[in-house]
Amino acid sequence: MTGSVGDSFIEITRTSGEDGKEYVSLPLQLMVQAAVDCEDTPAPLRRTLTALPWQRRAATTLERAVYSPDRIPEAAAALLALDARVALADGAQVPIIEFFARTSASQSPPASLLLPVDRADCCWGSARVARMSADQPIVAAVAVVKSEGTIVGSARLALIGVCRETVRLSQSVDLLVGKELNAEQIEAAAAAVAQEVSPVSDYLGSAEYRREMAAVLTRRALEQIREGENRL
Amino acid sequence: MSDQNLSVTLTVNGLERQLSVGRVDCLLDVLRGAGYKSVKRGCDTGDCGMCVVLMNGQPVRSCMLRAVEVDGAAVTTVEGLVAADGTLHPIQQAFVETGAIQCGFCTPAQMLLAKALIDTNPDPAEADIRQVMNSAHCRCTGYVRLVEAVQRAAAVMRGEEVPPVSHIALTLPGPDDPLQLPEPYYRRDQYATSVPLPPLVYTPPEMERTKYIGAPQVKVDAVKLAKGYPVFTDDVLPEGTLVGALLTSPHAHARIKSIDTSKAEALPGVHAVLTYKNVERVKYATGGQSWPQPEPYDQVVFDDKVRHVGDRVAAVAADDARIARRALRLIKVEYEILPAVVNMVKAMEPGTPVIHDEPDTEGIYDAQRNIVYHIEAEGGDVEKAFTEADHVFEGEYLTPKQQHVNLEPHVCVTYWDEDDRMVVRSSTQVPFHVRRIIAPLIGLPIKRIRVIKPRIGGGFGNKQEILLEDICSLLTIRTGRPVKMEYTRTQEFNASRSRHPNIIRYKVGVKDNTVTAMDLYLLGDTGAYGTHGLTVQMVGGFKGLTLYNPPNARFLCDVVYTNTPPAGAFRGYGSMQCQYGVEVIMEEIAEQLGLDAVEFKRNNWIKIGEPMHLSEALGEGREGQKQDLVTSALDECVRIGLEATDFYAKREQYKNQNGRIRRGIGFAVMIHGSAIAGLDMAAATLKMNDDGSFNLLIGATDIGTGSDTILAQIASEVLSIPVEDLIVYSSDTDFTPFDKGAYASSTTYLSGMAVRKTALKIKKMLLDHAAFMLEIDDPDTLTLADRKVTAPDGRSVTLEDVGLSSFHVENQHQIMATDSHISYVSPPPTAAQFVEVAVDMETGQIDTERLLMVVDCGRVINPITAAGQVEGGISQALGFALTEEMLYDDEGQPLNPRIGPYYIPRATDMPPTDVIFVQTDEPTGPYGAKSVAEISIDGVGPAMVSAVHDATGVWMRQLPLTPERVWRSLNGK
Ligand code: FES
Ligand code: FES
Questions:
Q1: With contact defined as beta carbons under 8 Å apart, do B899 and B489 qualify?
Q2: How far is CA B500 from CA B37, B285, B375, B578, in A?
Q3: What are phi and psi of A196, to 5 degrees?
Q4: Cα(B392)–Cα(B518) distance, rounded to whole angstroms?
Q5: Which of A17, B427, B797, B842 has the greatest number of beta carbons closer than 10 A?
Q6: What is the atom index within ligand 1 of the atom nearest the CA of B61?
Q7: Chain B neighbors of A217, CB-CB under 8 A
Q8: Residue ranges, CATH 3.10.20.30, chain B
Q9: Contact at 8 Å (CB) between B674 and B654?
Q10: Closest to B363 (Cα-Cα) out of B529, B557, B524, B498
């Protein structure tokens, strides 16, 4: 598979992560449009990127898009939920959360975005609230859950607009692991998320509203997963 | 452009161009500098999409790309779509034909997006088109005709035949006859999408038929706009033009303790620096209104006090924009920061800082309490009526400070002509008012100033203000050089104008289900300066008390200063705020009385023949005129809207809903006005040419509304010639007769009458000369039709014969006439707005599912442009209802002064949006026309509240209905 950079094409390859998992490697000099076109791009990320104006997709490199979660918050949330990694030029790899937080020890520049390939038994869900449908979200949630039989093997939930930082990976959904994803557990997770977040009021929404929405949207994202609507 | 000299090679529209650029020059500036003026600038932050070009076939924002980064790229601009022989590309042709071009400022970007889409997907679905159009804003069209244009272009490019673009004409059934609309207008089944429908036009059977009026005439300026010709103010600059830039205040309220411009003046490339220290202090008001403008004249060109973030501090003229910006940074200003007054209620409290404490402003009602205007008007005996009423209801409603977001910013170019006269080429709605108002500010008599209005990239009232013309002219006077000034987008938010935020308190007395008394208290926030503060609130009070026109009505109003950017004229002009209040309280009353809201309103709204009780007490800034309602199709508008939306069935269906998403349907009625009664004047000139064509010279300013076209249609109808035989020119204070400008819904009604009267004079001259040629004694026996004059015996002369004869052969004279018009009535258009919504009960988010407006604007001169006006107004109203609100912190610092965070509707935000006209025959209007531009914005707010109540059971009393506000109401917070 190839993606275009200007007039030239570059290879999109698969690679092993430091964690031993397999990843598809999207070079960061690719345009966002190439990530949309790449069939290996996971659905939650593709959906977010597709919603961008075409001229942004056509003229923004993946590097610019992912460099800071402020640029495209919903894409950042999708990457967090997907447990993406960034491969640095010196060969090191850092989880996307560390890349966003700039906590990686390496000073080496980023080279490619690593998206996990193994998505068996994974489902995702997302929900948002905005003033209008094409507006930036006030609060949004993206969740990815891997099932092991009937129970939750792992769960990742990223939230936008509920903390001082733009995007936040929730710890609360950890309590779903090892349990069945039923209405009761979802409610409990949503309530825990509302407790966990520390929203800040701004012109789009008060802290109180944002906290409430964190719970509502978490519940919705998880309900989509429980209903098996979106397989990864 | 920067001073570094690098070279890039671009293939622009197939032509290889070697361009010298600076290291940080953006592609937008480089392309415009190289002559590709179709590429527009609407911001510098990547928000607006006006600068879209195709790079290697893909749309990109040229303002976000450095030219050096794209060396070697192939770039397509709209100039490249036109064939070598001038033939339009099918996309351009479709945009022209469908009425997708209003002001035309967004058109190049939209057409390139369409091209990119169709090149990759020859048969795009409507949703695909909208998704792509999200890449560039349009503030004029509501996206309806844009979507239609792309669909049409794609069909043509697939080789399909397309039908001519037209409206659907139907005869209005009588009140007892069955009403059956064409199926798509019910928006059921396969039509339940946003697919654009042509406007429906209902005509009463007795209304006289016309030939050119009522036809879907293509706009006279559409082709040049589609071709991307350099027709906007910034597109043509005289040789050696300097760049002017404005230093604005970072503080909401401060005194300038000192200002040092020496470093800026010493900077090479800087030619002039202006501050309050070197510009004469002349008091004036920026609102472009007829003379004499209402007091107070509370502004000067530069002051030693700043009253809002964005207020003027200094201006420079420099060789280029970069030097100008550097010079602004070198101006050292020491401020004494004063406490800011941001809240309009607190502004009036004793002890609040005084915003206008300068001694030379006269006419402020109570400067110590920041009350600039206090208005009182009463008819009947309100207190007695309240005492006698069965019920008295009270309600308070709040409306936001909305920004116009005209996509072309304010821009102005000034230069001395060869006769030492100051030429001001400006993006203005009011060229004649500009000339009069800047004269004392720049120290020149009116006769030494010429104002030219080229094409305008949207105004909506914001360009009814004199914002840059004075400074730009002063810079030209100081430097002797042409100067260009343009607001940045941030300055548009902080230093242009906005809608007045209002607190609206109604008290309504009802006896026997009849509204017998209304008391309206209106508090208006005019921001830092008075400008339109008086007239906007007077119009609001008048319309807000005339829609239901109770015999006992009282209007009390305070207009206050705050340390926020000034409010001004904005489509809807106070009327939309007050009609929102009155419509919601009427619905609330109906609910409390257990009445059907439609019936309750119908029983009470103003009827034909009624005097408008407050029309004399509430004019615009002065006493008004006695007026009756002569024409109205409000009953029919509501009836048609109820039918098209299946209103009652849905209301029934939506009772007792459960679940997360609840649906609702709402409606509102409204009236507006047509021009300002007894105040404003318009004039027109027609001049015949040898070939039987005519120049139509009008002072009326087409700001994208299509007024040039409809005025030409009026002349066409009188003279029985096609619009192509008219060369329309607007406006230039040297060459076109006076017109007050584009505001107050006056162009069709007032300027249209001026054109009609002028054309009738010309007709008489034509017949007289033809009678002379045909040796007929009585010219009245001749008929003028189809470009010729025919005698009763069948002999005829063509208009070309008449032209040649009158110029060169016999009884030689110029067939030419000017006439003017003023009206002492302002006949209201009437309308009904329907809104359907789905409300998320957990988040409070509202999804709008349908917008329908049924409008009586008198005779519809051009159904396509009129529909475009309504669709665009509706989309601005949707923003007003749901998202748009300029917000400030306690220090008066703006919180969202960018298009993105402020948020105006995009293509995918717009639901199915339909327009139905019900024609009436207004006796005082040209061929029965009233107005259409402003009424279109009045109804969505209250109809939205009505729909949300239907869905949820809560009354929303503050706009916009943000998700949090709805959520709070739903949860009783
Ligand atoms: S000018 Fe480029 S996006 Fe506004
Ligand atoms: S026509 Fe789109 S902004 Fe005016």
A1: yes
A2: 35, 17, 16, 11
A3: -75, -35
A4: 9
A5: B427
A6: 2
A7: 843
A8: 6-81
A9: no
A10: B529
What's the pLDDT tens digit per position in B7-46? Answer: 999 999 999 999 999 999 999 999 999 999 999 999 988 9
A7 — pLDDT class (breaks 50, 70, 90) = very low
Mutation site for B-interface testing, chosen from A5, A29, A36, A55 by largest number of B Cβ within 10 Å = A55
- Hey, is the C-beta of A53 within 8 angstroms of any chain B C-beta? yes
Look up the CATH superfamily of B6-81. Beta-grasp domain (3.10.20.30)
Measure CB to CB from residue A132 to each of B887, B903, B968 and give the nearest one.
Answer: B903
Q: Report the C-alpha gap between B537 and B549 in whole angstroms.
A: 17
pTM here is: 0.96
Q: Which CATH architecture has domain B166-227+630-672+826-973?
A: 2-Layer Sandwich (3.30)
pLDDT at A9 over 60: no
- Tracing tokens 């995009």 back to the chain, one arrives at B906
The residues of chain B that CATH labels 3.30.365.10 are 166-227+630-672+826-973, 681-822
Please give the residue of chain B at the shortest CA–CA distance from A214.
B843
Q: Which amino acid is at A17?
A: G
Kindly list the residues from chain A whose CB atom is less than 8 angstroms away from the CB atom of residue B56: 6-7
Write the DSSP symbol of residue B565.
P
Q: How many CB atoms lie within 10 A of CB B79?
A: 19
B61 and A56 within 8 Å at the Cβ level: the answer is: yes
Whether A54 sits inside 8 A of B65 (CB atoms) is: no
Residue limits of CATH 3.90.1170.50 in chain B: 233-338+408-495
Out of A59, A202, A212, closest to residue B61 by CB:
A59
Q: Percent of chain B, pLDDT > 90?
A: 94
pLDDT value, residue A10: 60
Distance B138 CA to ligand 2 centre (A): 5
Structure-token pair, residue A87: 């491969």
Q: Would you call A58 an interface residue with chain B, using a CB distance cutoff of 8 Å?
A: yes
Strand partners, B376: B556
CA dist., res. A141 & res. A149, Å (int) = 25
Residue A187, chain B, CB below 8 Å: the answer is: no
Fold of B681-822: Aldehyde Oxidoreductase; domain 4 (3.30.365)
User: Chain B contact for A202, CB < 8 A?
Assistant: yes
Mean pLDDT of all residues belonging to chain B:
96
State the fold for domain B233-338+408-495.
Aldehyde Oxidoreductase; domain 3 (3.90.1170)
Structure tokens at A3: 């993606």
A8 touches chain B (CB under 8 A): no
Q: What is the ipTM of this complex?
A: 0.94
Residue A118 CB: number of other CB atoms within 10 A? 11
Cβ neighbours for B367, distance < 8 A, ≥ 6 positions apart: B354, B356, B357, B361
B272 Cβ contact partners less than 8 Å away, ≥ 6 residues apart: B316, B317, B475, B478, B479
Query: pLDDT by residue (tens digit) across B216-239?
Result: 999 999 999 999 999 999 999 999
- Please, is B504 exposed, middle or buried when counting C-beta atoms within 10 Å of its C-beta (0-12, 13-18, 19+)? buried
Cβ contact, residue pair B843, A216, below 8 Å: yes
Q: What lines the ligand 2 site, CB under 6 Å?
A: B 102-106, 138-141, 407, 458, 704
Q: Which ligand is nearest to the CA of A55?
A: 1
Residue with tokens 């949330």: A77
User: What residue of B is the nearest CA neighbor of A7?
Assistant: B56
Average pLDDT over residues A23-46: 89
Domains and CATH numbers, chain A: 2-116 (3.30.465.10), 122-226 (3.30.390.50)
Cβ B132–A130 below 8 Å, yes or no?
no
Count Cβ atoms within 10 A of the Cβ of residue B230 and give its class: 0-12 exposed, 13-18 middle, 19 or more buried: middle
